[in-house]
């Protein structure tokens, strides 16, 4: 697990922990390691801008972001090249799944606004392992949505810098960023690398006092 420094309840998984959506034994081991509950909140991810306020563990329906003000409820999203994002502030924690469709739809901004409507604020964000610009080949229809973030793959084709796009959408917040590219690092699931159905998990929680 990757634990961003300075965060009270944030962890990014690798393939070594298993696909914790379905691997209950693996989830139990990780929960024990992190000191959190074994029952987590998940969403059916749809590459949109839906945000769910969570007050209990379990499946929360279709969305790509969750936040909670309740202590002790782990919130998790699954990724295999898309960007996992964890947000923290006083009395609130959130987790986001964002590929290019979610970035274009504004799921990060939608999550920030949903939290702000509760009267709470985000102080810091962590961007976890994701596909890097040297490996994320896209066509003109995608690149055209992100002017200023068009890059080039290591083999010379057009790409975008998806983690940088997400960081830009977190303007005004202290941001920690992983340096891992999921496409090139075999310790992580990458759909672009081998069309895997496996996913690694990003999980956040408000620690119990």
Short structural summary:
21% of the residues lie in helices and 28% in strands.
Beta strands, count: 13
Helix content: 10-25%
CATH superfamily: CNF1/YfiH-like putative cysteine hydrolases
Quick check: average pLDDT? 96
List low-confidence stretches: none
Anisotropy-based shape: globular
Structural class: alpha/beta
Q: Count of helices?
A: 6
Strand content: 25-35%
The CATH top-level class label: Alpha Beta
- Report the C-alpha radius of gyration, rounded: 16 Å
Ends distance: 23 Å
Question: What about the largest sheet?
Answer: 6 strands, mixed
Order of helices and strands: EHEEEEEEEHHEHEEHEHE
Using the coordinates shown, work out and report the CATH topology: CNF1/YfiH-like putative cysteine hydrolases
CATH architecture: 4-Layer Sandwich
Characterization of this structure:
The protein is 21% helix and 28% strand. The mean pLDDT is 96. The protein has helices at residues 24-34, 100-105, 107-116, 140-143, 162-169, 191-194; strands at residues 10-12, 41-44, 51-54, 58-62, 65-68, 75-79, 83-89, 92-98, 124-127, 150-152, 158-160, 174-177, 200-204. The chain is globular, with a radius of gyration of 16 Å. The chain is built from six helices and 13 strands. The chain has a single domain (10-204), classed as 4-Layer Sandwich (CNF1/YfiH-like putative cysteine hydrolases). With 209 residues, the chain is of the alpha/beta class. The relative contact order is 0.22. A hairpin with a 2-residue loop joins strand 7 and strand 8 (92-98).
């Amino acid at each position: 697990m990757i634990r961003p420094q300075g965060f009270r309840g944030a962890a990014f998984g690798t393939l070594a922990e298993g696909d914790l959506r379905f691997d209950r034994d693996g989830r139990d081991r990780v929960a024990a390691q992190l000191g959190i509950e074994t029952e987590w909140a998940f969403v059916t991810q749809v590459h949109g801008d839906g945000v769910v306020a969570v007050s209990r563990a379990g499946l929360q329906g279709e969305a790509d972001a969750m936040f909670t003000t309740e202590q002790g409820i782990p919130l998790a999203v699954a990724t295999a090249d898309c960007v996992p994002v964890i947000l923290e502030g006083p009395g609130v924690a959130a987790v986001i799944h964002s590929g290019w469709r979610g970035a274009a739809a504004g799921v990060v901004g939608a999550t920030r606004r949903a939290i702000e409507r509760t009267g709470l604020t985000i102080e810091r964000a962590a961007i976890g392992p994701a596909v890097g610009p040297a490996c994320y080949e896209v066509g003109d229809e995608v690149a055209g949505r992100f002017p200023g973030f068009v890059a080039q793959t290591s083999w010379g084709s057009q790409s975008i810098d998806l983690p940088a796009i997400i960081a830009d959408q977190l303007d005004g917040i202290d941001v920690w960023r992983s340096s891992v590219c999921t496409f090139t690092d075999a310790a992580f699931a990458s759909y672009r690398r081998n069309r895997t159905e496996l996913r690694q998990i990003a999980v956040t929680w408000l620690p119990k006092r």
